[in-house]
Amino acid sequence: MLQTIFTYEWKQLLRSKGLIVALFIFTAIGFFCLKQGAIVYQYQRISVDSAMAKKIRSYDFVKNIFDTIKHSNIRSSIETPYILERRLQDVVAKNISPLSVLSIGQGDIYAPLISGHFNNEIFKNNFSEFKNPEQLLAGNLDASFFIVFLFPLLLLALTYNLQSADKELGIDSLLYTQAASVDVLFRQRLLFRWLIALLPMFFLTFLSFWLLYSLPGFSSLSFLQWWGVAFLYALFWLVVVALVHRLKFNSLVNAISLAGVWVLLLIAIPGLLNTWFNFQNPATNKTEIAEFRDYNAKIWDQSSENKRKHFFANYIQVLKGSANVDSNFIDIFSSALQILDKEKELHNVIANNANAQMKAEEKSFWINPVGGVVRSFAIIGNTGLEQQIQFEKAVMKYREEKLHYFFENILFQTNFTKKDFEKIPTYFEPNMELKFGKYLLPLSLLTLIAIFLSSIKIKNNNQ
User: Fold this and answer.
1) 211 is in which domain, residue-wise?
2) In sequence order, what are the beta bridge partners of 113?
3) What is the DSSP letter of 146?
4) Considering its fold, how many domains does the chain have in total?
5) Residue of 166, 165, 146 whose CA lies nearest to 154
6) In 414-436, where does DSSP find H-type helix?
7) Closest by CA position to 258, among listed 366, 161, 369
8) C-alpha torsion 331→312→124→381, nearest 10
9) Closest by Cα among 247, 157, 219 to 458
10) pLDDT single digits (tens) 353-376
11) Are 200 and 154 in contact (CB under 8 A)?
């Protein structure tokens, strides 16, 4: 019976030239979205590779200097922290996952490169405050955008009149003469049209695998997880369509109802929630970042007495030998410490605000299940906000370690030797593999509830 229904629907599909054209158009749009993600990835990959190659060349150049340097009682310029850092041209790169091609997420908002110089504040690289993925609403033109926003429209266009059209054309009486019940026939026809709507997604799945599998860092498990989330989302919309059809509306009402559900789930609810969350957790004003830069200048202009007072509060062990320490180094170190502390304070305020908003959004996924899908895509693609926060915190920690290492060497040693150079702290990337299953729980539960409600309705009809 299923084969007969599929054959019938396939013949109907071939007769509908407009539907075939629509499938080709949606497939072309999907290809364009995938290409846009690939362009962003390629641009970032080239930027990172170029910057890291330059960093390696600079490191080798400075290393050669320390291989031949002759030390004396007076430090050479290369042995001073600022000159050494300027020569090293240190930069830290975030891991760019191949799956970011599918879900750009925060990838086009935040640069994947941050200066590793201990005195180059993070706000020089990124002026804007954090933004959450759900706040992007329509999002980026990538595969996740196509799946989240456009796939439902294609499915709704294929199925809105699936049941009502038979009655409107006067052929519904023929369906009652079939061996199978009308509900079974409806489910089989709906399944076929859902599979037709999935054709562009199948195309993107195979094409994306062909594009990504050879890229460095590609993970088959993560790839399957990403597309698993996509097909779970597609299943959710299948159940939504089935549930609306159980109400036995005519084609016009079905179209309006399904379009209303699309607007509600993808535009209205996320938009209202974001407005509320922004009110509850206002983003850090860019004026505060500008004021931090003014603070930077004020610290360098403060008196030497104030600088030394702050320094000795942190390094009391230096008091005994302070007469032997160059006061200029103390002033510079003190200023750098104060600026970094202020930068960490401001960055923590921004990060804590973002974390508070993300937790609030997580609770709202029960009424905004699409938000959970968007966040899952971003996490699997390593482009989520939480991963960006972890990256920037790791860079802050790295810069602080370097600051203390360079200046403590000046305080407690006569020279900065080759051995000291080889022990310069290195950056370690934090573990950014986050669990995303909890974000899909609302969508999964809502899908099961809709299936249950549809089953009850079908059972009552059969009775």
Assistant:
1) 2-462
2) 93
3) I
4) 1
5) 146
6) 418-422
7) 161
8) 150
9) 247
10) 888 888 988 999 999 999 999 999
11) yes
The tokens describing 424, both together, are: 């310069």
Q: What are phi and psi of 303, to 5 degrees?
A: -65, 155
Beta bridge partners of 93: 113
Highest averaged pLDDT of the listed ranges 87-101, 182-196, 410-424:
87-101
CB of 237 closer than 8 Å to CB of 98: no
Number of H helices, E strands in the chain: 19, 2
Q: Tokens 């309705």, residue? A: 457
418, with CB counted inside 10 A (0-12, 13-18, 19+), is middle
Among candidate residues 18, 382, 109, the one with its CA nearest the CA of residue 222: 382
Length of the chain: 463
Angstrom distance (rounded) from CA 48 to CA 449: 46
Cα gap 193→212, rounded to integer Å: 29
Structure-token match 């799945």, residue found: 205
Q: Is 129 helix (H, G, I), strand (E, B) or coil?
A: coil
- As a whole number of angstroms, the distance between CA 91 and CA 302 comes to 30
User: Is the separation of the CB atoms in 90 and 116 below 8 Å?
Assistant: yes
pLDDT in tens, 94-115: 989 999 999 987 776 777 888 8
Residues with Cβ within 8 Å of 306's Cβ and at least 6 positions away in sequence, in order, are none
- Tell me the whole-structure pTM to 2 decimals: 0.85
- C-alpha 434/C-alpha 195 separation (Å) is 31
d(CA 376, CA 360): 16
CA angle 307, 308, 312 (to 5 degrees): 125
Helical residues (DSSP H) of 92-181, grouped into ranges? 143-145, 151-159, 164-168, 172-175
Alpha-helical regions (H) of 160-250: 164-168, 172-175, 182-197, 199-212, 220-245
